C-alpha cells in the first residue's frame, strides 16, 4: 500500500499533470505544430539553464536542508543562479541571433524566476513541508493554464509573447509565496563569512555528485529535440513534444513515489529500514505505470487529431515507441531515490551516462530517416538502458548487504 504522504503527492501531481496536459492542448491548438515546437525549445533551453544552476543546488538543497542553516544554503544558490542565467542569456543571444521578440532575454529571465522558485521550494521540501511544496507546484501549473486560456481565447492573443507573459505570472506568484514561507523558518539570520564559505563548499561537493545524473538524464530526455529541430524543423519537434508529454505524464506515480521516499530517507534515523518500503513501492509503481500506458496506447490517432489539431495525429507512433522506455524508467525512479537519499551518486551517474551513450548514435542514425518517431525510439532505448542498470545496481547492493564478505563492481560503486 502507498503511504498517505505518497497519496497526497500523487494527487497533487495528478492535478499538475492534468493542468500540464491543458497547457500542451492550448499551445498545440492555438499555435499549431510549429508554435508548439517553439514553446518546447524555449522550455528546453530554460531547463538547460536550470541544470547548470543545479551544480550549486538542486536536490542537494533538499539533502542538506535538514542539517544546515537554510540561509547559508540560500545565499550561494541564489548568487550562482543569477550568474548562470546572465551567462546563459548571452550564450543564447549569440547562438540564435535570428530569434525574434527578445528570445534570449526571456530565456534568462524565465530561467532565473524558475530557479529562485525551485531553490525556495527545495529548501521547504527538505524541511518536510511536502504539502506546501506540492501545493506551490500545483499553483504554478494552474496559473500557467489559466493565463494561457485567458490570453489565447479571452483576448485572442495567440502568440509566443502571450506564452511569455503567462509564464512570468505562473512562476512569479508562487515564488513570492515560497519566499514568505521560507522566511518563517526559525534558522538564525546572521551569517559569518567563514560559515557561509564552509556551507558553500559542502553544497558544491554534494551538488557535483548528485547533479551529474540530472544533467545526463536531461540529455537522455531532451537532447533529441535539438537533433530533431536541426534535421526536421520545429513542426516535428511539436509532434514529438505532444507525444512525449502524453507518455511521460504516466511518470506522475513514479515521481511522486520517488519524492516521498527520498524525503523519508534523508530524514530517517535508520536508512537501511527504508529498503523494504522502496521495493514495495517499485512493484506497485511498475504495475500502475504499465496499466496507464496500456490505456494510453488504446487511444487512436483520430482522437489525437480531434483534441490537439490536424498536425498531431502523427504523435500516436511516437507514444508507442516511447512506451517501453517510459514504463521501465518510471518503475525504477524510486530506486534512484534510494541511492541519492544516501549520498551515493555513482549508480545513478553511471546508469544515465550509459543511457546517453546508447542515445547519441541512435539519434544520429534514426532521426534523419524517421524524424519524430526515430527520436522517440532512440529515447526509449536510452530509458531502458538506464532502468536496467539501476535495477542491476540495486540488486547487487542487496547482495552486498546480506553477504558482508561479497564484493562486486556494483557494490563498490554503491559505496562510493
> How much helical structure, as a percent, in the residues?
over 70%
List low-pLDDT spans. Answer: 404-416
What's the mean pLDDT score?
A: 86
Q: What's the number of extended β-strand segments?
A: 0
By oligomeric state, this entry counts as single chain
Main sheet?
none
The whole-angstrom Rg is 21 Å
Strand-pairing-aware structural class: mainly alpha
Shape: globular
Order of helices and strands: HHHHHHHHHHHHHH
Strand content: under 5%
How widely separated are the two ends? Answer: 32 Å
Provide a descriptive summary of the structure in words.
This protein has 416 residues and is mainly alpha-helical. The chain is 83% helix and 0% strand. The chain has 14 helices and no strands. The protein has helices at residues 4-53, 59-64, 70-95, 103-126, 130-154, 160-183, 193-232, 234-248, 252-266, 275-297, 301-308, 315-340, 346-402, 409-414. Helix 5 (130-154) runs antiparallel to helix 6 and helix 8 runs parallel beside helix 13 (346-402). It is globular, with a radius of gyration of 21 Å.
